[in-house]
Structure prediction request, 641 residues.
Amino acid sequence: MEYASVFIILACLFGFFMAWGIGANDVANAMGTSVGSGAVTIKHAIIIAAIFEFSGALLAGGEVTQTIRKGMIDTSSLTTTPELLVFGMLAALLAAAVWLLVASYYGWPVSTTHSIVGAIVGFAAVGIGMEAVMWGKVGTIAMSWVISPLTAGAIAYALFMSVQKLIIDTPDPFASAKRYVPFYIFLVGFIISLVTMFKGLKHVGLDLSTTQAYLFSVLIGTGMAFISKIFINRIKHEPSEDKDFHYTNVEKVFAVLMIVTACAMAFAHGSNDVANAVGPIAAVVGIVESGGEIAAKSALPIWILFLGGVGIVIGLVTYGHRVIATIGSNITELTPSRGFAATLAAATTVVVASGTGMPISTTHTLVGGVLGVGLARGIGALNMRIIRTIFMSWVITLPAGAGLAIIFFFILKGVFT
Amino acid sequence: MSNYVYRMFGSSPVRPLQNHMEQVHLCAAELVNFFEAVIAQDQPRIVAAQESVVALEHEADKLKKSLRLSLPKGMFLPVSRRDLLDMLTMQDNIANKSKDIAGLMLGRQMVLPENVAPLFLTYVKRSIDAIAQADTAINELDELVETGFRGREVKVVEKMIKTLNQIESDTDEIQIQIRSEMFKIEKDLPPIDAMFIYRIIEWVGELADLAQRVGSRLQLMLAK
Prediction:
C-alpha cells in the first residue's frame, strides 16, 4: 500500500490529539462529582485520574475499541478499495477532534463518543454508501445512549435509598456508616474487577475462567474493604462539628467511600472513552499492516491502547487540571453520600457498557446518576435547563461530527489519490 | 471554560431560607426590648428599639429578595418551588408585622395600662417563643434534605411542629386573659387609645399565627 507509514503516523497523530482532548476536557466531567463533593482534593483527583484512566484504558478498553474500529461499518464492499476505510477513519478522528475543540471553545457540553460515532457513520454513509453502515449495530448504540443514563439513574436512586435505610436513618448514623461503608467499598471493587476480568484480560496475557474471575473479584473487593476499614477506623467522632449540621461526621466516613468511587469512575471512563481515540487508529493500523486487507479477525495491538492511555494522561496533566480546578469546591450541595451514589451508579453502568463493547457517553451517564439522587429528594437544587442542554447536545453533535467527517474524507481522498 | 457537570448544580435554597428565618426571628425578638421600653416609658429607648426592628426587617427583606432571584423556574428541588416561595413570604410577613407593631406603637406614643402591662409582656414573649420554635424547625431543613425527607428526622421535625402548635395555643389563652383585663378598664381609657391597644393585641397574636403557618407549610413539605 502506498503511503503506508504516512497513514499510520497520521492516525497516531490524530488519535493522540483526540486522546489529549479527552484527557483535557472529558476527565474533568468524570471527576467533577468527586472533587465537587469535597472528598477528593484537586491534586488527588489528578493522581487518581492519571492512574485509573490509564489502567481502565489498558485493561478494559479493548471491547469498545473493537466496536469503534469495525463494529459499525460493513467492510465487505471495501475489499478492493481498503484505502477508503483508511481515509474515512482518519477523517472521522479529525472531525471529532475538531468538533470537540470548537465545542470546548464555546463551552458546549458535547460528548466525545457521540462525535466519533457520528463521524464514522457520516463518512461511511456518504463516502462509501448507505449499505456500508451496519444500521442494526448503530441503532443499538443509539439505544444505549438512552438506556445508560436511565440505568445509572435507577442504580443511583437504589443506592441512595439503601444508604438512607442502612446508615442515615438509624439511631447512630456514625456507627452505622462505619459498619456499612466497607461493604459498599467491597461492592465497588467487586463489580469493577468482575466486569473487567469477565471480558477476559487476554490482551494483557491473562486468561481467566469464570470461577477464577469471581474468585479474584471477591478477593480484590475484600482487600479494598479491609484497607479502607483501617482508614475509616481512624476517623474520630467530633460532636462539636455536628452542631450546625448533624451529619458532618457521617459524611466524613462517606468521603472514604467517595475516594474509592472516584477511582472506579476514572477507571470506567478510561475503559470506555479511550476507544473513541484509539478505535480509528486500530482500524488504520490493522488495514495498513495486513497490506491492504481488511482483516476481520485481527487482534487489537496493545500498544494502541497504551498510546490512548498516555494521551489521556498527558491531556489531563497539561490542561485537564485547570478544568478540574474550576469545579473545585463549587458544588457545595453535593455531599459525599450523594456524590458516591451518583458516581458509583455511573461507573458501574459505564464499566458494564465497556464490557459489552457499547460506546456510551460518560457525562450523560453521570448526569443520569445525579438525577436519580435528585429524584430521591437528596439534592438541594438541580438546574434542569442545563441538564436538558447536556442531553440535547447529542442531537447537534451527531450531524456536526458526520458533516465534518464527510468534508475531511473527500479532502483526504483528493490528496492521496 | 464552563464545566457542565458543575453547572447542573444550582445553589440550594435551603441555607438561604434558614438564614432568612433566623433574621426574621432576630427582628421579632427585638420587640421584647421594645415593649420593655414602652412599659418603662423610656422614650429614647423606645425610639432606638423601633429603629432596630426596622433595620432588622430591612435585612430580612434583602435576604428574601436574593433568595427569590436565586430560584428561577426550571430548578429541580427536593420540595416544591411553590411551597418554598410561600414559606418565604410567610416568614417575611412575621418581620413585616413586627415592624408594623413597633411603628404603630411609636407613632401613636402608646402607653400600656398598668394592670395589663406585665401580662402583655408575657404575651409578646410567648408569641416570640412561637417564632423561635418555627426557626428551630426550619433549621432542620438541611437535615431533612440529607435524609431525603424520610424516617427519624421527619419525626423529629413533626414533634417540633407539635410544640409550635402548643405554643400558639398558649398565646391564644393569654390573649383571652388580656382582653378580659382590658374589658374591665376600657371605659376609663380614651376610646381611641383603647381601640389601638386592641389592634396591637390582635397583631401580636398574628405573629404567633404566622409562625404556626410556617410550621404547617413545613409539614406539607414533609408529606409530599
